[in-house]
Design brief:
Blueprint: H1 15-28, E1 34-35, H2 47-58, H3 71-85, E2 94-97, H4 100-111, E3 117-122, H5 127-134, E4 138-143, H6 154-160, E5 165-171, H7 183-196, E6 199-203, E7 228-233, E8 246-249, H8 252-263, H9 271-282, H10 287-306, E9 313-314, E10 322-326, H11 334-345, E11 347-348, E12 350-351, E13 362-366, H12 371-384, H13 386-393
Helix pairs in contact: 2-9, 3-9, 4-8, 10-12, 11-12
C-alpha cells in the first residue's frame, strides 16, 4: 500500500477540538453542556460588517483577486496598525490569508529550513511545535511558569539558543495563560534576536483584547522590523472566526516569499470577506472596546469566584479571554479534572497538557460564554469539587 508522507506523523491536533467533539456527543445524548473549551467569541461581527459582506456579494465581489490581498484591505491594515499599535507599516508589507493559522504556516514555511531549531513558549498554541516538526525542524520549548507570573525566563531562552536556532515564536497576550509579556521581556527578546540573528514571529492575535495599558509590539523596537513577522487577524478581536481572515506583516522580501507560497497553494483569499474586513477595521460602532469590556467583567467574575473553590487557583489574566487554572491542590490529575467536569458537571474545559508539558497541573477555561452561563458553570464546578476536597484538606 502506498504510504502517507512521514511529516504527517510529526503533526499533532488541538486538545480543544477533541474536548469539543466529546461535548457535542453528550449534547446529542440530551446532556446540558456549558462550552468553555474553544477560543471562539460568543459575539458576532458588528452589523456594518455583515452589511458590507452582503453588499460585496450582491455587487459580484466574488472573483479571483490579488494573491497578497486586495489593495484597499492591505492599506486599511497598515492604517489600523498605526492607529492601534503605533506601527509604521506600508501596505506592501502586508499579506492577507484565509485565517491566522494559514498566515503562520506561510511564514514558517518561508523562513524555516529542515534541522533548524525553533524556540516557542510552553504553554502555548499547540500548532507552534506541531508545524515546526512538520517542516523537519526541531521545536525547543521555553517555559512560562506561574512563579514568574508566566513571563518568559530570558536566561533560559538564552541558554537554549544554539548555532541551529533560526526562529523564536511568542504570543502576547498568551494563549492559554492570558499573560501580557512585560516591556522588559519584549526588550530582552529583541536583544537576543539581534545578537543571534533570529527571526521572530510575534503572534498578536489577542493584541486588542487587553485589560490595561497599551499594546507594545516588538516590531517597533530598534532593529526589529527587519526580522519580525507579525501574525494577526479578525477571528478574536472582531469575532469573525468562521470568516477565516488573517494576515502577516513583514518586510517586502519576506512578503514576496509568502506570496510565492500563496501562488502554489490557495491562490487568494475570498474577495467579499476582504471587503467586509475593511469595515471591521473601521469599527464604526465601537464593537471592539465594548466586547473587551465585557470580557473584563467575565474575567473578574469567573476568577474571583473560582478562586473560592477548594483546589483551584487562578491568576487574573492581563489579556485574551482565558482562565489558566492551577488544579494541583485537588490531588487529581488535570485530565481527570477535565473528565469529571465534562462528564459529571457538564462543563467543558481543557487539561493543560494540551498546551505543553508545563500545563500538566492546569485546566484552561475560555471565558467566551455569557455571564449567566459562567455563573452556572461555577455552580456546577462547586458541586463536583467535593470529589477532591479531602485531598485539599490534607
Amino acid at each position: 500500500m502506498a504510504k502517507i508522507a512521514s511529516r504527517i506523523a510529526q503533526l499533532t491536533g488541538e486538545g480543544a477540538l477533541a474536548v469539543f467533539t466529546r461535548a457535542k456527543e453528550l449534547e446529542k445524548a440530551g446532556r446540558s453542556i456549558i462550552h468553555l473549551e474553544l477560543g471562539e467569541p460568543d459575539f458576532h461581527p458588528a452589523a456594518p460588517v455583515v452589511d458590507a459582506l452582503r453588499a460585496a456579494v450582491a455587487d459580484g465581489r466574488d472573483r479571483y483577486v490579488a494573491t497578497r490581498g486586495i489593495a484597499p484591505l492591505r492599506a486599511a491594515i497598515a492604517d489600523y496598525l498605526k492607529r492601534t499599535r503605533g506601527l509604521d507599516v506600508a501596505a506592501e508589507q502586508v499579506l492577507v490569508a484565509p485565517g491566522c493559522k494559514m498566515a503562520l504556516a506561510l511564514a514558517m514555511m518561508a523562513l524555516i529550513e529542515p534541522a533548524d531549531e525553533v524556540l516557542y513558549p510552553d504553554p502555548s498554541f499547540p500548532i507552534y511545535p506541531s508545524f515546526t516538526r512538520g517542516l523537519g525542524a526541531k521545536a525547543v520549548p521555553y517555559a512560562l511558569r506561574e512563579e514568574n507570573k508566566f513571563q518568559p525566563d530570558l536566561a533560559e531562552i538564552g541558554a537554549k539558543i544554539t548555532p541551529k536556532t533560526r526562529m523564536l515564536i511568542f504570543n502576547s497576550p498568551n494563549n492559554p495563560t492570558g499573560t501580557v509579556f512585560s516591556d522588559s521581556a519584549i526588550g530582552q527578546i529583541a536583544e537576543l534576536a539581534k545578537k543571534h540573528d533570529l527571526w521572530v514571529i510575534a503572534d498578536e492575535i489577542y493584541a486588542r483584547i487587553l485589560f490595561s495599558g497599551e499594546y507594545k509590539s516588538i516590531w517597533a523596537l530598534p532593529g526589529m522590523a527587519e526580522r519580525t513577522v507579525i501574525i494577526d487577524g479578525f477571528s478574536k478581536s472582531f469575532a469573525m472566526t468562521g470568516w477565516r481572515l488573517g494576515y502577516a506583516v513583514a518586510q517586502k522580501h519576506v512578503i514576496d516569499a509568502l506570496d510565492m507560497l500563496v501562488l502554489n497553494t490557495f491562490t487568494c483569499t475570498a474577495e467579499f470577506s476582504q471587503v467586509a474586513a475593511i469595515e471591521a477595521l473601521r469599527d464604526s460602532t465601537n464593537a471592539v472596546p465594548a466586547m473587551v469590556e465585557e470580557y473584563r467583567k467575565r474575567r473578574d467574575l469567573f476568577v474571583e469566584r473560582l478562586n473560592r473553590i477548594p483546589g483551584f487557583r487562578c491568576q487574573s489574566p492581563d489579556g485574551a479571554f482565558y482562565a489558566w487554572v492551577n488544579i494541583e491542590e485537588t490531588g487529581v490529575p488535570a485530565e481527570e479534572v477535565q473528565r469529571v467536569l465534562l462528564e459529571e458537571a457538564g462543563v467543558a474545559g481543557i487539561a493543560g497538557a494540551a498546551f505543553g508539558v508545563e500545563g500538566k497541573n492546569y485546566v484552561r477555561f475560555s471565558l467566551v460564554s455569557a455571564t449567566h452561563l459562567l455563573e452556572d458553570a461555577l455552580e456546577r464546578i462547586q458541586r463536583v469539587s467535593s470529589r477532591w476536597r479531602a485531598a485539599v484538606a490534607r
